[in-house]
Amino acid sequence: GGVVGLCVGLNLLKMEGNFIARDTPSGFDEFLDAETVTYLHQVRAQLRELHQEREKLETILKQQQEAQKRVRNKYHSYVQSESNDLVQQLDANSESTKLLVRNVLAEMHGRYNEVARDIQASRVLELLIASSEESELVSLLDSLLLSGKVARFSSLAEHRCASHVLECVIKRAVKFESTAKCIERVCKLMTSEDLIQLMIDDRGSHVARALFSQLSGSPDHSEVVERQELEGCLITKTVNVSGLKSLPKLEAFDVYPSLLDSLLYLSRILAEQIDESGIQNFVETPAISAALQGLLRALRARSESQNGSEFKTILIRLCKAVLTKDIETTLSVCRHMPGSRLIECTVLSIPDEEVLIKLLKKVFRGKLWELAGDSSANYVVQRVLSVVPAGSSLLVQFLDELEPQFHWLLENQRAGVVLACVQAALLSTPAASKSKSSSLQLQKRITAALASALNATGTSHKRCLIHLLLFPSHNRLLRWQDYVKTLDFDGSPSKSNGHSSGPRVWALGSLIAQALLSAGVGDASRCAFDSVAAFSRDEVLCLSQDAAGSRVLEAFFNGKGDGVKEKRAVAEYFVPYVALLSMDKNASRVLESCFRCDAVEIEFREKIVERLLQQRDEIAETPSGRFVLRTCRAEEYRTRKDRWRMTENARDTKREVLNDLLQDEKRID
Fold first, then answer.
1. Closest Cα partner for 269 from 198, 205, 332, 218?
2. Residue 202 Cα distances to 292, 341, 346, 657, angstroms
3. For an engineered disulfide with 535, which of 206, 457, 539, 606 has Cβ 3.0 to 4.6 Å away?
């Protein structure tokens, strides 16, 4: 009876409504006696106590697990930091360091795959690899990569921790001939499908880029490796920087022939794949686009090295495949970010000028205007204009297509294209162009088109060209001029933040103005210098304290044109306010450019220094002020005035001699 009652009680506990919680188990009175009911209540109480004990135990267990996790994370973070400090402090060439690395790697042998995937241990493995010797690397590569072939390599490359270990292994392995051959074996096992699958993965893309750069012997400047905390541990995080910025820095170092063979092999299978299926698959994600950009950068670096003809050939083939396999597809992929970045990098990577002109003419002639209005494709247009050889007929054709649309481009936030047109026209100097007259005529056309787009036509309006570039509408310019009239540049504190309520200088307009002022010769330079000279004193002082406006004034003083009279006139505006301007982070740079300007005489520079010395202590308390004092050599002027004058006179003489030489070269041309 007791067993039956217990079973009934346990079943009742499962019943909805918790039947046993009732004082009297109604419905069972007819077959349960009082003793059984009492027994069931006792069972219920015991079960409740057991349930409460279980909850307490679960809570304690959870707390212990959390405490263990915190301790484990702190321990691993401590081990990582200590390992990092230990490796950095030890001499890589010492026997103790070699012995430490050898022993630790020996203990890991057979478990490299597991260690590389662990969030804490992978970082320690990276540190050990960076200090490992050739023999340890051979063993590691054999266990980590070669035993599992391409499948193992791909699996590790797509793991959040192991991918960074792979990058570290690749960068270390290329330093030794035997390990370089191991990398070659892995590369030669890859098919085009394997390589594309690696490049399309977010993490695998970083591994592919590291592989391309190391195979070519050119460091990849497009990535920055940082450390971030995850689950209480420091892990490696690779941050992308635009690959386009790294192209001017390309250089290739000597590497083992096996690595160069691997780079050629990977380049060929990708070129064959693009020739067969086009570039559509290479612009689906930013990851694969960035990886292909990495390959183009690596080939470009290698093509410019000694004996780089073979790499130049495969690079041209790859660029032709990207640009001309399907021109309609090429133009369409320019309209989204991954595609536009790839096309930009391709255009920049073409190593031969003749091939460059042919490809640009075939793909982009008559299409620039369509692309210029797109939010992504307009960057491709800017890049194309920047690489077209100066003085070529193709540049004239491109400018003919875009010049009538300057007004629309400025109104629709595509001023970057206008800036690229101006820079391309101004770079077409007489030395680069076939004739001086055609070069100056091109500059004159672009300046006239720009003035027309800004409604700065006519004799009086031409003097407002820079005004309208900085404040791109007559209404906005008038509001700024009215605002300037409310300022009082007497050195009072309220003038230091005088731009907070006035119209801001247009940053892109500032860049266009700087390009015009830097032209040096021609109608563009003359018009720009006249326009800056037309600013009033208060307007010049206000611009000097603006981040974008100050750059225009710097370009004005640094310009190589004939505006000596204009420079001296504007420079005189600064004399009463030297102390105030020297303490402003923007105006101080303008003051330094003014001091170094060829047009100003030594007497003017003396006035500048004397004004600085009157408030030397106050100026020296500000960072910008200290730079101005150093540039003007104020301390030397105060203690040894004769020596200061002698140095300045010597500099003026050198400048005159240099200018005479430059003028002689122009006459010869």
1. 198
2. 13, 17, 21, 57
3. 539
CB 342 within 8 A of CB 335: no
Q: Which of 376, 392, 375, 381 is nearest to 427 (CA)?
A: 392
Element (H, E) at 188: helix 177-189
Nearest Cα neighbor of 173 from 121, 117, 135 is 135
Q: Which of 378, 380, 371, 366 is nearest to 322 (CA)?
A: 380
- What is the residue-averaged pLDDT of the chain? 80
Bridge partners, 229 (sequence order): 234
- Beta bridge partners, 493, equal none
Say if residues 484 and 501 touch (Cβ distance below 8 Å).
no
- Rounded CA gap, 178 and 375, in Å? 49
Amino acid present at 526: R
Angle at 202 between CA 200 and CA 204, to 5 degrees: 70
Mean pLDDT for the stretch of residues 345-371: 92
Give 488: exposed, middle or buried? Use CB within 10 Å, 0-12, 13-18, 19+. exposed
Cite the DSSP H helix spans in 335-433.
337-349, 353-364, 368-372, 377-387, 393-402, 406-411, 415-427
Decide: 457 and 451 in contact? Cβ < 8 Å.
Answer: yes
CB 524 within 8 A of CB 514: no
In which element (H, E) is residue 445 found?
A: helix 436-453
CA distances from 634 to 177, 583, 595, 617, 645 (A): 58, 15, 12, 12, 12
At a CB cut-off of 8 Å and minimum separation 6, what does 321 contact? 271, 274, 275, 279
Question: CA-CA distance, 4 to 309, in Å (whole number)?
Answer: 94
Which one, of 521, 519, 487, lies nearest residue 501 by Cα?
Answer: 487
> Are the C-beta atoms of 559 and 518 separated by less than 8 Å?
yes
Q: Are 407 and 369 in contact (CB under 8 A)?
A: no
User: How much of the chain, in percent, has pLDDT values that exceed 90?
Assistant: 30
Note the pLDDT tens digit of each residue in 225-278.
444 444 444 444 444 444 454 454 556 667 788 888 999 999 999 999 998 888
Question: Angle 501-618-540 (CA atoms, 0-180°, nearest 5)?
Answer: 40
pLDDT at 540 over 90: yes
Of 458, 364, 350, 363, the closest CA to residue 420 belongs to 364
pLDDT at residue 94 greater than cutoff 90 = no
Question: 160-191: buried (b, 16+ CB within 10 Å) or exposed (e) per residue?
Answer: ebbbbbbbbbbbbbbebeebbbbbbebbeebe
Q: Give the separation between CA 190 and CA 151, rounded to whole angstroms.
A: 10
Q: What span, in angstroms and rounded, lies between the C-alpha atoms of 568 and 598?
A: 10
